[in-house]
Backbone:
């Protein structure tokens, strides 16, 4: 068990994942058809609802600066504002595996043999919000900077 204390924003995110209020989606932050979310989409809904944009049949979170021609919008990864608010290591919720038990990493490596293990990937592989919330609470140093 970690001795790191979750921030207020991190705690709200974990509670929201457990709340039953959000249906779970895969491969997108938010699903147009079902109104369900991936674990990072829940964070976007909590901390960046003003940056939600519907474009056709896809929902994106992020910002666009026409003056700078910067389009920081995505439908599969958390925008920088959400990353910073939560202290995520990366837009996909990449995990620092050195802060996880070796047996858990070994099990995860079976699914991610050559890639980085991330919260988005675990969500898309069928980890429940409850399992993701448990991982975040038990090993926050693997999730947050």
Residues:
């Amino acid at each position: 068990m970690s001795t790191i204390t979750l921030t207020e924003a991190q705690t709200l995110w974990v509670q929201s994942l457990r709340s039953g209020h959000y249906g779970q989606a895969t491969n997108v932050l938010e699903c147009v058809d079902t109104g369900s979310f991936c674990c990072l989409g829940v964070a976007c809904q909590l901390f960046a609802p003003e940056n939600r944009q519907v474009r056709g049949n896809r929902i994106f979170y992020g910002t666009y600066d026409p003056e700078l021609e910067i389009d920081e919008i995505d439908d599969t990864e958390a925008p920088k504002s959400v990353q910073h608010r939560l202290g995520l290591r990366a837009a996909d919720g990449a995990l620092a595996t050195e802060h996880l038990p070796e047996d858990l990493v070994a099990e995860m490596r079976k699914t991610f043999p050559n890639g980085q293990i991330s919260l988005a990937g675990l969500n898309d592989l069928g980890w429940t919000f409850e399992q993701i919330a448990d991982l975040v609470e038990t090993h926050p140093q693997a999730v947050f900077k």
About this structure: DSSP finds seven helices and three strands in the chain. Helices lie at 8-18, 39-47, 80-86, 102-111, 119-124, 129-138, 140-143. The chain has one domain: 8-138.
